[in-house]
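Escalated from tier 1: zinc ion holo job.
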Amino acid sequence: MTHHITATREDGTVFEVSYGYGARQRRLLGCLHCDWEEQITYGGARHKGLDHLAQAHGAVGSPTMTADPRARRQVLWAMTVCFLISVVILWWAMSQT
Ligand SMILES: [Zn+2]
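Tier 2 regenerated the structure:
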């Protein structure tokens, strides 16, 4: 299982469907909260996963693949550090003249 499709219910409970390759390279969707499983023969895996979460668990998810929030924070932090360094370098260069 490589991808996770998540949806959030009104009370804040997060439901998740994992998506990836099962036996014999078949693409499979599997719900982590019930024993629902579906084999995908062509596209639309995310859509099918969200459909199940909405119908069986009443949860609504976004149709875009979401990155791990921790990874996103790390990217943001790295960008902030780069920005600060360039500000310091600029300030230093200006103070030399
Ligand atoms: Zn389910």
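Helices lie at 45-57, 69-95.
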